[in-house]
Amino acid sequence: MAGNTFGSIFKLTSFGESHGVAIGGIIDGCPAGLSINVDQIQVDLDRRKPGQSHISTQRKESDTVEILSGIFEGKTLGTPIGFMIRNKDQRSKDYSKIKDVYRPSHADFTYQEKYGIRDYRGGGRSSARETACRVVAGSIAKQILKTKGIEVTAFVLQIGSIKTGKTYQELNLSLVEENIVRCPDADIANQMIALVEATKKKGDSLGGIIQCLIKNPIVGIGEPVFDRLNANLAKAMLSINAVKGFELGSGFAGSEQLGSEHNDAFKMIDGIPVTETNNSGGIQGGISNGQDIYFNVAFKPVATIFKEQDTINKDGEEVKMKAEGRHDPCVVPRAVPIVEAMTAIVMLDALLLKQTNRLV
Amino acid sequence: MAGNTFGSIFKLTSFGESHGVAIGGIIDGCPAGLSINVDQIQVDLDRRKPGQSHISTQRKESDTVEILSGIFEGKTLGTPIGFMIRNKDQRSKDYSKIKDVYRPSHADFTYQEKYGIRDYRGGGRSSARETACRVVAGSIAKQILKTKGIEVTAFVLQIGSIKTGKTYQELNLSLVEENIVRCPDADIANQMIALVEATKKKGDSLGGIIQCLIKNPIVGIGEPVFDRLNANLAKAMLSINAVKGFELGSGFAGSEQLGSEHNDAFKMIDGIPVTETNNSGGIQGGISNGQDIYFNVAFKPVATIFKEQDTINKDGEEVKMKAEGRHDPCVVPRAVPIVEAMTAIVMLDALLLKQTNRLV
Amino acid sequence: MAGNTFGSIFKLTSFGESHGVAIGGIIDGCPAGLSINVDQIQVDLDRRKPGQSHISTQRKESDTVEILSGIFEGKTLGTPIGFMIRNKDQRSKDYSKIKDVYRPSHADFTYQEKYGIRDYRGGGRSSARETACRVVAGSIAKQILKTKGIEVTAFVLQIGSIKTGKTYQELNLSLVEENIVRCPDADIANQMIALVEATKKKGDSLGGIIQCLIKNPIVGIGEPVFDRLNANLAKAMLSINAVKGFELGSGFAGSEQLGSEHNDAFKMIDGIPVTETNNSGGIQGGISNGQDIYFNVAFKPVATIFKEQDTINKDGEEVKMKAEGRHDPCVVPRAVPIVEAMTAIVMLDALLLKQTNRLV
Amino acid sequence: MAGNTFGSIFKLTSFGESHGVAIGGIIDGCPAGLSINVDQIQVDLDRRKPGQSHISTQRKESDTVEILSGIFEGKTLGTPIGFMIRNKDQRSKDYSKIKDVYRPSHADFTYQEKYGIRDYRGGGRSSARETACRVVAGSIAKQILKTKGIEVTAFVLQIGSIKTGKTYQELNLSLVEENIVRCPDADIANQMIALVEATKKKGDSLGGIIQCLIKNPIVGIGEPVFDRLNANLAKAMLSINAVKGFELGSGFAGSEQLGSEHNDAFKMIDGIPVTETNNSGGIQGGISNGQDIYFNVAFKPVATIFKEQDTINKDGEEVKMKAEGRHDPCVVPRAVPIVEAMTAIVMLDALLLKQTNRLV
After folding, report:
1. Rounded to an integer, what distance in angstroms lies between the CA atom of residue A131 and that of residue A341?
2. Maximum alpha-carbon separation in chain A
3. D2 at the B interface (CB within 8 A)?
4. How far apart are CA C32 and CA C30, in angstroms?
5. What's the rounded Cα separation, in Å, for the pair A168 and A340?
6. B97 close contact with D: CB closer than 8 A
7. Are the Cβ atoms of B359 and D352 closer than 8 angstroms?
8. Contacts of residue A34 in chain C, CB cutoff 8 Å?
């Protein structure tokens, strides 16, 4: 209810302020008897971590996850998986400058108004550092989905106004990790990198768009009406810091098509029902139809910039402020594993719910 | 869990197949002692009902709501509000033609696969008829929000490729109900009407975009992390039939802006913190900041068209099909009260949750 | 959250005031494709209904259930099952006498204080009339459990201080419906009937104890820690009007035993693990072990009596009151189907949750 | 859903196996701005910890809680409170003897059957060690309730067949901590201690009954119908290891009273409505009426005994077993803070929900 839990059967509850003792979480409802590779979780965390490339923040957060329960001799017990990541970068620095100032387009003001108190160190609970917990749960979910043949892959489609013109079918998604912006279109990736570097020099920041693909979803995943698979994916994406938009399949562009253009005709291939086109993005009536599920996620530019900005402080005085320290000019590449993680959590949760649709 | 409940405190659970005995719902968690105007609920239902204009379906569904409990002598009791709308258009027509055929881009195939059974009459549970229940709950929520000064207004921004170029600030939203497409830009509205008429003649269908505005949201609404106000709004919107996209504030376009352009500087006006711009769309860190909340919702074109289409049947045979009967060529104008309803439910629910943020 | 929903997967939400338009409910999460006998639901409702015998209230509530959705051609669709029972006994009688008086040991005072408003007619939402909705859902659950061999049977163990000395193994539970007090021990039943008749004449009322037995529970039902099967059964029972106590297996008496007496030794019979004794009542660590589950439920005497009582009114004045109309001197026999219903709901819900313990 | 979360607004999710790395939890929904004394949490943990007296197990578990988030400069942030207790007594002892043997009246068999895997070390997740997490959350809840004047106190009423004949009104509850069995009746306490010592010598074990009192509950706490305050208390109690029964107010004995004896007449004292008697145990219609809330909780004797017992192993063979190591002959005194903790969690959660009953 208070916002720190996601999912219904496979359920993540997370805790932690950016500069507190630790962040972490509990995954409840993970099915029993499944092999989990803890090293693989660390690989995903490393894809999210700060300081992974020269265009990313140089903060050194090692983000080492410690599994505290729920996995025994390499297998899930069916009991809650507790985990924790100590905050090692907790330098007792001087917060007096930002303590009472509301950074523009951050959550300082809204948290203070909502709770009457906030941990002002590094954004506290509102920091995107919290998303590391999602990556842990998502990595476990991805491993489990893989045993059913379901694969979740996200990549950067656009940074600023640099955008690949290719569809996911035209791209080779095995190349996503080949460059630091996680765009599998090499030429475009280079342009993106140049743009990020140039923007960083100006002390400004960038947004972008991530596309996520779910290959081989089983037919029949997603509950009807309010818990449509697309509705839960949309919620999952909009719950990520800096996300401003979500579109499934044809998305906003589809609003301009005619029904006769947009409809996905069914046909049979090798005895399996498939659709000629996939404007539906693999979901019909909120339920997966077996075709690829794909969607776009829009990220606004990073709110922390190194230019002087107008704002107010806690006492309602208008003041100037300018960021200090180390911050990403563009978080979109680092958000790729977060998008994958939230997608995998939604999918596994829905897959488990599907197991209750019929009495076995 | 099974998808037919929405909300956490102010919670709607709905039931009903399109051509069953009735549709209806239960609203639990409505605060006690509030005056509810039942006639106003009917007004909102009439805005959603089929057959309200010559461009809408000519099916005559009177959609008369009967309140069964929870309101006593005009006021809410704090107990669940049960309500029901009888399905009067239940003509025992011949369904043999469509019984076993999967209509393209409908949910016939996915429901059948998921449940192994479906009510094939008029789409059954997957029909948008179910949204009438949302309008009932939403109308109650809107009435309650209004007592706190919060107003929810949606309107049609775009149909097909006809789009108003004006912002909501430039439009006069009191004119939304003045035309049958619910676009407050009269010239554009006329173009939209002409487009719908022409498309109807061709037996084809259209999609479009609705914009929704929440005026005067109280500061501090929305829970952090997973239950961000924007995440819940996104889920609410994507849970509506035919919706493919959601964007808050600057949305997808904001991904191309620089941080220095996108950030909303705070300033004080008459002792109240406001922002210079509102790219955030009134929500920061998932919590309302007191500025207008606005977002766009993309609808795909209606799947039911009067052109012959390729599809398959239950036995896996490729067949041709063509819709019969009366169907809207464009549901976007009728979806305006649905968007408002879901928005109001999200807002009231979050407002009640906010009442638990501090001990009183 | 507001208290009108029970269950997690198989979930009942109910609505309705005693003398409002109707009571009813929505069952969400019922698995698809199961045959439901609607006549059997009516049989269970008739076991609960008032006026079924000369010792019961003579109010004539026909309690006819109307199924509104979710069942199609005799089978569950997997969609929500909406249902309704019209309140036919809604005589516009004069409530001025009781409108502002708080009946002792009823919920008039607490509802008024909690909500600042209440439907004073016949107890409104606090009336046990609401339990008819549980019987509807429970009857469906019982039918489904039966397909898995799980049988739920409750009976009256004690009324006032008249108690059968026999265990459920010594009783013939097929005789429960043979007498109007639903005690399968014929001699004791006659004594109970005599006691109820005598107490009725005095204008007083009685309580009693119901025992419930679950035969053939599948091993492994019940979630650990907070959602133990016994915890959910206890909640279910204490949620029934007038219930003051719950005990599983050895119960309160077991507190006086030694561990060596109380422990249930495992042994093998025909290759199946069984226990020599069953002090555990079929549940260990919150999970069914395959043995009979049995528990007792204590009901206080009916609060409505025909003797003058001291109480207060809404204005804080001390007044005298005396019940009028038709009321049961003992509700325990009529509560038997309610206990069965709530038990069946808990069991089916847990059985469905069990289907998510492993990935299939 | 998977059983490791309790509460709706003030919500505890716990994790951890008895001999894993750590146990811990997350408290979500704790209101913001409240002072929490972390030392007081440790005091409550020490009341629960093993080895606190000569009649308790001699295992040395220091049970030191580490708060990881949610409390900043001594006050709650409104964000989740993460906490952890390292398992220090994790001696890599030889489990080969018990690994495959199902201890009678323990959860070894049911966990193995349910999940197909279990952590056999010290009972794993089914161990009562998990209740330490409840004590942490409950201690925080008790501190918060105290600021509203609500006090929760539990004490031992009975061990084996030694029982105090005094009511809580006749006892001085400030003496609960004065003896090692936590019975405030000194003579009875001495008899209890002697019984425990004698039973320990025989290698056997004891159960007992705890009574819990909530002084000064605010009127109007508890939701109606399914989430009655008594229903939630019953669930909370039955979710504690070894609990077999719950009774509120008059409880099982009340079933033998007449309505005229049992009804609690209202009267006014100093302008405040009170009841002459309190057979209702402070709750009517599931909602607190302002009188003392009191209830009894029955614990079965400890399942671990040092006598040889018959049982079976994983391969379905009948075997003999006998406990080794250090185990409590009676856990009832150590369960007192657990009962208080669960009671406080239920009360605070219901108090917060009450804040949503009306729009403020």
Report:
1. 9
2. 69
3. no
4. 6
5. 15
6. no
7. yes
8. 359
Asked if C33 reaches chain A (Cβ–Cβ under 8 Å), the answer is yes
pLDDT tens, per residue, chain B with 360 residues: 899 999 999 999 999 999 999 999 999 999 999 999 999 999 999 999 888 888 776 555 578 999 999 999 999 999 999 999 999 866 557 777 788 999 999 999 999 999 999 999 989 999 999 999 999 999 999 999 999 999 999 999 999 999 999 999 999 999 999 999 999 999 999 999 999 999 999 999 999 999 999 999 999 999 999 999 999 999 999 999 999 999 999 999 999 999 999 999 999 999 999 999 999 999 999 999 999 999 999 999 999 999 999 999 999 999 999 988 878 899 999 999 999 999 999 999 999 999 999 999
* CATH 3.20.20.70 fits domain B5-354: no
Q: Please report which residue ranges of C210-303 form alpha helices under DSSP H.
A: 229-238, 251-254, 259-262
Number of CB pairs < 8 Å for A and D?
172
Give the C window 212-251 contacts with D, CB below 8 Å.
219-220, 222-228, 230-239, 241, 243-251
Amino acid identity of residue C26, one-letter, is: I
For A276-317, strand residue ranges (E) read 283-284, 287-288, 293-299, 309-312
Chain D residue nearest residue B141, CA to CA = D359
Which residues of chain D are within 8 Å of residue C276 when distances are taken between CB atoms? 310
Q: What share of chain B is helix, strand, coil (3-state, %, to 5)?
A: 30, 25, 45
Which residues of chain C have a CB within 8 Å of the CB of B3?
A: 28
Complex-level ipTM: 0.97
The token pair that represents C257 in the structure block: 């035993």
Subunits in contact with chain D (3 or more CB pairs closer than 8 Å): A, B, C
Rounded Cα distance, C82 and C15, in Å: 11
Give which of A141, A130, A135 is closest to A214, Cα–Cα: A141
For residue C317, list chain D residues with Cβ-Cβ distance below 8 A.
268
Which chain C residue shows the shortest CA-CA distance from B86? C68
- 3-class SS of residue A35: strand
Whether B355 sits inside 8 A of D353 (CB atoms) is no
List D residues 58-87 in contact with A (Cβ-Cβ < 8 A).
Answer: 66-70, 72, 75-82, 84
Strand extents, DSSP E, C197-335: 208-215, 243-248, 266-269, 272-275, 283-284, 287-288, 293-299, 309-312, 318-321
> Cβ of D359 and B353 within 8 Å?
no
Q: Mind spelling out the 3-state secondary structure of B66-120?
A: EECCCEECCEECCCCEEEEEECCCCCCCCCCCCCCECCCCCCHHHHHHHHCCCCC
- The size of the C-D interface in CB pairs under 8 A is 389
User: Taking the model in full, what pTM does it have?
Assistant: 0.98
**For tokens 């985990």, what's the residue?**
A83
Cβ-Cβ contacts under 8 Å for A45 (sequence gap 6 or more)? A63, A64, A65, A85, A132, A135, A136, A139, A337
Q: Phi and psi dihedrals of A137, rounded to 5? A: -65, -40
